[in-house]
Design brief:
59% helix; 79 residues; globular; mainly alpha; Non-ribosomal Peptide Synthetase Peptidyl Carrier Protein, Chain A
Length: 79
């Protein structure tokens, strides 16, 4: 697991503390109980703070899983 994944896992763990690392790494909207619009905003705010990035409004609807957010971060230059 690389540093970006580890940092993103910490963000997910803060929002979804009842999930273990494996569950966090495969988490997605619709699969995680309690992942609603408030959890999405909280999660993306944490990610923005952790990585110093800003999600554009058009990006928000696509950030529906750990993998999608990780892909977005990698597209922004985080390896």
């Amino acid at each position: 697991m690389d540093e970006t994944q580890t940092r993103l896992l910490r963000c997910f763990a803060a929002v979804f503390p009842g999930l273990n690392e494996t569950e966090l790494g495969s988490a997605s909207l619709g699969q995680v109980e309690g992942w609603d619009s408030v959890a999405t905003i909280t999660l993306l705010s944490l990610v923005e703070e952790e990585f110093g990035v800003e999600f554009q409004p058009e990006d928000l609807a696509r950030q529906t899983s750990f993998e999608r957010i990780l892909d977005h971060l990698r597209a922004k230059g985080f390896a």
